[in-house]
């Protein structure tokens, strides 16, 4: 039995998991945890009256993903998100884009786990009571040993440790690869995630990266608490593109052959309730 209320989640994806898209996924199935696109803490702070534009209406299945590195701003943003009724916040520690690196957040934070811990501690001080979770990679550049990943996890054991860590099972290269290449070229290393989950049985982990079939998700769920699906989970990702670029319909027609993956999962014996 998973220790997560919604063990399977749809990954945060910029330009994909916007409020409209999340609403569509809820219609397809109500069972999944849905992550918003990464939203910078300053965007939340500067548009605090209007955060539904970025995150939609607060819904119990929604996790708002924050980007940023300043503990004070991240804590304030999380508090605003909480005050708007959202039930969970996630910190992006995996995005390798140049702009994000330039802002000292995303994947570069893996190199400075004490900054992530400071953010979590500051959130504690700012009365953020909703769960604050982390989404990271297995490593960055040559900091890619299992010891590095384990040290990262240990360093998060601050006064407010994250109740859930989602690991994208590949490292990223901070130089020379685009974000898209960084989602495809570094090889997936599921073993590293299984080993980490085994080493820290008191913590709750999800695995992410390359899950394309119900069978693969079922297998993952036998080894770890949660599984996050991105590109495939949103076969509807392509549908989203079709919404934005109607002319792309024909190029993206394969999606027509691929029924909603969330519905496939619903039917895949992952849940005891009949659908
Ligand atoms: C278009 C796109 C945008 C993404 N944006 C984010 C993001 O905002 N935050 C984040 O943590 N990961 C982001 N990711 C990475 C995904 O959350 C996920 O880790 C990655 O796609 C691997 O999972 P998958 O193989 O199931 O797609 C993005 C991925 C894609 C394809």
Describe the model.
This protein is α/β, with parallel strands linked by helices. The chain has a single domain, classed as TIM Barrel. Helix content is 37%, strand content 13%. It contains 13 helices and 9 strands. An 8-stranded parallel β-barrel has the order 1-2-4-5-6-7-8-9. The longest helix has 13 residues, at 71-83. It is globular. The two termini are 19 Å apart. Residues 235-259 have low confidence and may be disordered. The site of flavin mononucleotide has 23 residues, from loops.
**The CATH architecture:** Alpha-Beta Barrel
How would a textbook summarize the main sheet? 8 strands, parallel, barrel
* CATH top-level class: Alpha Beta
Low-confidence stretches: 235-259
According to CATH, the homologous superfamily is: Aldolase class I
Please tally the β strands and state the result. 9
Termini separation (Å)? 19 Å
Classify the helix fraction into a percent range: 25-40%
* Average pLDDT, all residues: 87
Judged by helices, strands and strand pairing, the structural class is: alpha/beta
Q: What is the topology?
A:
Elements: E1 8-10, H1 19-28, E2 33-35, E3 39-40, H2 41-46, H3 52-55, E4 62-67, H4 71-83, E5 89-93, H5 98-102, H6 113-125, E6 132-137, H7 146-155, E7 165-168, H8 179-182, H9 190-199, E8 205-208, H10 214-221, E9 226-229, H11 235-244, H12 254-257, H13 261-266
Parallel strand pairs: 1-2, 1-9, 2-4, 3-4, 4-5, 5-6, 6-7, 7-8, 8-9
Helix pairs in contact: 4-6
This protein binds flavin mononucleotide (FMN).
